[in-house]
Design a protein that fits this description.
There is one protein chain. By secondary structure, the protein is α/β, with parallel strands linked by helices. The protein has a domain at 3-162 and 196-223 and 262-273: Rossmann fold (3-Layer(aba) Sandwich), CATH 3.40.50.720. It contains 10 helices and 14 strands. The chain has a 7-stranded parallel β-sheet with strand order 3-2-1-4-5-6-11, sandwiched between helices. A 3-stranded mixed β-sheet has the order 12-9-14. The protein has a two-stranded parallel ribbon with strand order 7-10. It starts with a strand and ends with a helix.
Amino acid sequence: MGRVLIIGAGYLAGHVGQRLRALGHTAVLSSRRRPATPEARDLGWLPVDVSAPETIRAALAEAKPDSVVTVHGPSDITWCEANPAEAMVAHQGGALHLAEALGGRRALMISTDNVFPGRKDSCAESEPTEPANVYGRVKLAAEDTLLATGNAVALRVSLVYGWDRAGLRPNFFTTCAQKLGAGQPVAVPGDHWNSPVLVDDVAAWTAALLHSEQTGVVHLGGPRRLTRVEWARHIATGYGVDPDLVSAAPQSSTAYACRPRNACLHSERAEGIAELKGLEPVDVFEASSKLIAIGEESQ
């Protein structure tokens, strides 16, 4: 089995590490700060700042990985919009420092649906990129940098969800579930479309692609395209509360204003990748219902 260094130590990085370990690989997280989530704290950790290439080289020397997964850079889309220069340095600059240190190792970068403008209902890998915002631009620049090494995959994912109570910025499912489960109202966009993907599915695809021969871009989106209002009302129903606690707000008036109106992905390539057989992403309504049941049992 292989050794993998993960650049990142947050919610998604922790789940990727756990998946790799369950498959028999050795996974080590790395970041500027120690992991905060339970999934991440349970794994090994090394200090890395992608703006300081010497820390990347030191982590590679200590972890001795066969391959690298990177989820580096600030993921707060609103912050990136307000700080474009700093966002580019963190994402593209960090990718450049990593690419220079890889020494031929295989790499997988987890990227975003924000590389598209949102005019089409859903985008496949062949769709021309046209970033909707700063976050999309800096992610695309980081993709190009790592793909230029010739031994890398950029896995673009739709809105990732799951229980994330310990995160600094809990994902949409967690936020809605906590509020609606307590009988509190929520106002979310009724004109913003997503194809949400469960964090476990992202981790499974990451592990499979990392240990395949696939290079280039691969898309992962969930099988259901829906608005955040539809999703939140399903969550409300799961808690047995009035779905009318969820009100529809224009996307332009919310924290999602700078995101593409259609933030949905599908894949033209997945069926041809043998390692992804049997790893079809779960439907968001089915997964949300199961997460609600798990959450209530753990209270």
